[in-house]
UniProtKB/TrEMBL annotation:
Domain Rad50/SbcC-type AAA: 18-231
Name the UniProt record assigns to this protein: AAA family ATPase
Pfam families: AAA_23
GO biological process: double-strand break repair
InterPro entries tied to this protein: P-loop_NTPase (IPR027417), Rad50/SbcC_AAA (IPR038729)
GO terms, molecular function: ATP hydrolysis activity
Gene3D superfamilies xrefs: 1.10.287.1490, P-loop containing nucleotide triphosphate hydrolases
Coiled coil segments of this chain: 141-304, 345-508
């Protein structure tokens, strides 16, 4: 997985300028950054974190704070030819934001680019959170599953169409054979008809002198021919109607089966589901609000621990006096900006940890409610779909039955018509028998024979034409095969891509973490720490009403003894420095897997004090290869360890 930065290939401005007003502990300031690494160097409580928050505010993050004594603040970022501005206002005890920041949606950046101490990706490793859930959070898996279902439906339709073409192609040999047989029969009938007509003409010549007397006979014979033609057409229409009725009856049986298989649900069940959905939505909204409040409280307390001076009133902003000295000392207490009382740092840290635990519990509870909510929505959707399909199927059944009744009535009418025509022929033949003289004996039979041969020939020619039309239609349909196969191949490829997208993201995340963790451990050389990696496993789990495969990211640690023997360890036994590096590498993996550098070209690093200066320098150098703008807040002694050639800001 190679994501190393090539600035020549990225359309990223060379310089950015930030103007800040009343963010965190900053009154006002303006700074510029060059592409590459910028170090914010200074002692504790010198507004380095506040400046990082101002950058986050301009980029679009909501994880920022307004100066305690201010009612409004702003952050403006000039980046290339564009200017991005964000304003913060305090209203009724809450902070509202406005403006046009760099990002419309800051989720990816908050997770994997803004790596302050409270960053969730960094903290997830130390707390033992679900690493897989965090790395996959920006991926809309529900939308991917919905898209998969749509493509599966398209593929089924294409498969059905291709299967129909296979059936049609299989019919061609029989149709070709049938056409040949009918053509041969037509040729035989044409020969027979020609002979019969010649024989009739010969008979007519012999009785030519009596034609006037026999004109009535000829008329009757023509009437017989016409009536027989009508009978034949009526018979064919009856056969067509009967075939249609048979097809309709088969369809009716299928529709009835479908109707019996559909469950419409009762109104009580639907009402219950709708009420449960409404309740679950309200519970989820309440939990989301509580989670947001907990996160704000956690960030506030963490900032209070990191930069307590930013919460003081105006009169304490100078670095003179005992209160300032107290804050700048490495004290075990922190002065509360709201009441002025001193609170033990350990007590605040314990409270923050409890808040984090509560937030994680609420996140898990919200996840469970989301699963229940999806289950109820799916059930209700299925019921509604079944009700709609049931109504449509019921209407179709009624339509089929009406059509069967109509065609049955038509058969009765045609049957009566055929019987009337048969009676007319009987009457005509009786009249012909009476008119026929002995000399003209057999003329009626000859006319009948010619007439019947003409009927048969006409019917066979019509049958041949129908066969040829069917063959032409099949051949035309078969011409679609190549297009359908190409479409199916495209759909299959897209399905494969969709089905493997989630799996690929997970695999890439694990590979990225393992690769960079191995590289950094080799560079940082922690004593007896041999390897840290993520082991990805899969298990079956229920998600709503479906059974799905779920992955789990298990963090593995291997140490070695003095004599070189390897043994497995846990995250709890990592030093603070090792834990911080692991969290940062996990955040870097998310940054690269989700291509965050294409969304926002900034990465912010803070709270690296647990790592020694030499390793911080190596870490910064490593991260620099993957980020256009890397802005790092460091203590003075750590900043000196970072090699020259980087921008340094000391006055904020």
């Amino acid at each position: 997985m190679e994501h190393r930065l090539d600035t020549k290939k990225r359309d990223v401005p060379e310089e950015a300028t930030l103007v800040v007003d009343n963010i965190g502990g900053i009154d006002e300031t303006a700074v510029s950054f060059q592409q590459g690494v910028t170090v914010l160097s200074g002692r504790n409580a010198t507004n380095r974190t506040s400046l990082l928050q101002a950058i986050m505010a301009a980029l679009g993050s909501n994880q920022v704070s307004l100066k305690a004594d201010a009612t409004e603040g702003s952050a403006m970022l000039e980046f290339g030819d564009e200017t991005y501005r964000r304003t913060l206002q305090r209203r009724n005890g809450t902070i509202t934001t406005d403006g046009e920041p760099y990002l419309d949606d800051p989720e990816l950046a908050d997770l994997f680019a803004f790596l302050l101490e409270s960053n969730e990706a960094r903290r997830a490793v130390a707390r033992g959170d679900d690493l897989r859930e965090l790395i996959m959070r920006p991926v809309d898996t529900a939308a991917i599953r919905s898209e998969i279902e749509q493509y599966e439906q398209r593929k089924r339709e294409l498969d059905d169409q291709l299967a129909q073409l296979d059936d049609l192609e299989g019919r061609l040999p029989d149709l070709e054979a049938k056409r040949k047989r009918v053509t041969d029969e037509i040729e035989t009938l044409e020969v027979d008809l020609e002979e019969a007509r010649a024989k009739l003409d010969e008979t007519n010549v012999n009785v030519e002198e009596r034609r006037e007397e026999q004109s009535e006979l000829e008329t009757k014979l023509d009437e017989v021919r016409t009536t027989r033609s009508e009978i034949e057409r009526t018979r064919e229409r009856i056969e067509t109607e009967r075939a249609s009725i048979e097809a309709l009856e088969d369809e009716r049986d299928q529709v009835r089966d479908t109707l019996e298989s559909l469950s419409t649900g009762d109104e009580t069940e639907i009402g219950r589901l709708e009420a449960e959905i409404e309740t679950l939505q309200a519970e989820k909204a309440d939990l989301s609000e509580e989670i947001s409040q907990l996160q704000s409280t956690i960030q506030f307390n963490e900032q209070l621990l990191d930069e307590p001076e930013s919460f003081l009133e105006d009169e304490t902003e100078t670095n003179d006096g005992p209160l300032t000295d107290q804050l700048l000392d490495d004290s075990e207490t922190v002065t509360c900006w709201t009441c002025g009382s001193s609170v033990a740092r350990e007590q605040i840290e314990t409270t923050v940890e409890q808040l984090r635990t509560a937030r994680q519990e609420r996140l898990e509870e919200r996840s469970e409610i989301s699963a229940e909510l999806n289950d109820r929505r799916e059930t209700l959707s299925t019921i509604n779909e079944n009700r709609t399909e049931y109504q449509q199927t019921q209407r179709r059944l009624e339509s089929i039955e009406d059509e069967i009744d109509r065609r049955s009535e038509r058969i009765e009418e045609l049957t009566e018509e055929r019987e009337q025509l048969t009676e007319e022929i009987d009457a005509l033949e009786a009249e012909i028998d009476a008119l026929e003289t002995e000399e003209q004996s057999g003329v009626l039979d000859q006319h009948k024979e010619v007439n019947q041969l003409e009927f048969k020939l006409e019917r066979k020619e019509r049958e041949r034409d129908e066969i040829e039309d069917e063959i032409s239609e099949i051949e035309s349909r078969l011409d679609e095969r190549e297009t359908l196969e190409a479409r199916r191949e495209d759909v299959t490829d897209e399905l494969t891509t969709l089905r493997t997208r989630i799996d690929q993201i997970e695999a890439d995340a694990v590979d990225a973490f393992n690769e960079h963790m191995e590289n950094l451990l080799e560079t940082l050389r922690y004593e007896n720490l041999e390897r840290i990696w993520i082991d990805r496993t899969t298990r079956e789990a229920r998600e709503g009403r479906r059974k799905v495969s779920k992955s789990s990211f298990d963090l593995k640690i291997v140490r070695s003894t003095d004599d070189g023997a390897a043994y497995e360890d846990t995250i709890d036994h990592l030093s603070e420095s090792e834990r911080e590096v692991t969290g940062l590498v996990f955040a870097l993996a998310g940054y690269l897997v989700h291509d965050v550098y294409e969304t926002v070209p900034f990465m912010l690093l803070d709270s690296l004090e647990a790592i020694d200066s030499e390793r911080i320098a190596a870490l910064v150098e490593y991260f620099e290869s993957y980020v256009p703008y890397l802005i790092v807040a460091l203590l003075e002694e750590d900043a000196q360890a970072v090699e020259g050639g980087h921008g340094v800001i000391t006055d904020i």
